[in-house]
Predict the 3D structure of the following.
Amino acid sequence: EVQLVESGGGLVQPGGSLRLSCAASGFTFNNFAMSWVRQAPGKGLEWVSGIFGGGGSTYYADSMKGRFTISRDNSRNMVYLQMNSLRTEDTAVYYCAKFCCGAAAIRGLDYWGQGTLVTVSS
Amino acid sequence: QTVVTQEPSFSVSPGGTVTLTCGLSSGSVSTTYYPSWYQQTPGQAPRTLIYNTNTRSSGVPDRFSGSILGNKAALTITGAQADDESDYYCVLYMGSGISMFGGGTKLTVL
């Protein structure tokens, strides 16, 4: 059974940093690209970032580029999201999700975690 | 900048059929956008229904189907049930590793 468990959310001041983690199990981790998706309170879903199975290629939504960094540790079946220069508008539930279709297929999510809440406030 | 468009809301009668669509503010959706569909109820994580236009995710009943209709991607729900009342989101692959969500459709079953 595929499981994705996020951790690392919490309250952070504007301008601060936070690192989210996602522990994956139930599939051959390095065979699949992974993603982060977020949802601000009362709003829709927003794609944040993606990373190839080997970790060599990463992609970001424009509003996150330069502030967020996605990475993975295939020896530990973990994916991370380092978030710097946080803004109040980054307040959201952040979901870890698995891409469906291969290590370099960075489209089509098939499994999701339960999410971790990040609150950016002074 | 191109925006992914969805109907803000839709309603369907129990047992009825509804088709939700996913388009582009500029241009047509085709299979090369690998459209996917997700269902979300309040307070819950999203659930994948469809990916790669028409591939049902594991455990999704065949009442849910995906297609391209005209210049849009479409999600059709047949035999609507009360627990289909949810928010539905589509995602399009925009190329260069970038995906984009639509604004979501709030489906009411009444």
User: Anything to note?
Assistant: The mean pLDDT of chain A is 96. The CA atoms of residues 8 and 20 of chain A lie 5 Å apart.
